[in-house]
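Lab notebook page, bench 4
Experiment: in silico fold of construct C2
Operator: M.H.
Input chain length: 155 residues
Purpose: comparison with the prior construct
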Amino acid sequence: MANFAQGRMLLSHNFDIADEVIPPLSREEFAKLFIEGLRESAQCRLVNNPHWIVEVLFDTSKFSPTEMGEKYAQALLNIRRSQIKEGLSLPHILILGGIKTTPAMSSSPDSLQPGEWGVDVVETIDAQRFLEGIGWETAIATKPSESIFKVEVKN
């Protein structure tokens, strides 16, 4: 994957579910599911950052940011299907992405830089309540559509 138009995304995990429904993932487990699940389409690694967990490098001539978001949702869904307790519903998965437009908080290679995508991978019982709680519609109202994306999987 050396000669391609490289995109960079940093992923965080927002686990908004009771542990009795589905087990929380450690940073290492979260990173492993993308490292293994995206082997064919991206290079992933665990990062050393208090907020971001996984760095994803991908070929922007092959995949759009939204397509990458769909891959993240599918990778998480594949793992969660085997972990859900019998009789319970899988959580809703939200993949919320936006391009960083403000100055970087750090020059560390593990921090998000302007022009890169920050992506929140959310697991929740109620996607609508979660989005309302973070003010998603207000937050994106003035942003250009090409600078944000949302992938939603409800089961």
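Observations: The helical segments are 27-37, 65-83, 127-134, 136-140. The radius of gyration is 15 Å.
Next step: discuss at group meeting.
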